[in-house]
Amino acid sequence: MLLHRQPDLTVIMDNVNKAHNLSAIIRSCDGVGIDEIHAVSYRKSIYAKQNAAAGASKWLTLTLHPDIASAYRKVSACGMQILVATGKEGSRDFRAIDYTVPTALVMGAEWDGISEEAIKGADHAITVPMFGMVESLNVSVATAVILFEAQRQRAEKGMYKRQQLEENCFERMLFEHAYPRLSREFREKECAYPRLDADGRICSNEQKNAGQ
Asked: Which residue intervals define the domain RNA methyltransferase SpoU/TrmH type C-terminal in the entry (predicted)?
């Protein structure tokens, strides 16, 4: 799982508020190898739901932001292009975008849609073409459709065949997933994690420090 993680691909949820949509988006993100996602909350009730949804998956991190500007600053600092999903005129077909470059996908709220501030700060506006009577897909479904196009492009380029995580991040996450209880104890003590051998066991000369 860690070998397939895509640290330069993420999702920003702009005030998404329904718990089932939050959980579904998290599942889709994990499915395409995303390690960290972001959420913007303008309402306390939504913040609480998003915070609760963060526990829907132990395999990725949900970072909460007070406004879209702070979320954009975070992903822009990582060199990501920012894409907003919207049905507004002039939006590009989501399949016409190159997702093999660092990318942050912004999805709007069920109540209000994508905010004007989010649209203005993005690099591109994209849309999922619709040919029926309904104007748009459910936000979690639309997120999945777009993300799996990103996965397709990245798989074709071989980006799932080579490690994308930096080595120190890979080793940290490996220990935390393999030894969740021990990792909590080491964090509480502010101690460095012990090294693991090729089979995932704590190296024998460090077992004493690990309490084994």
From this structure: 152-204
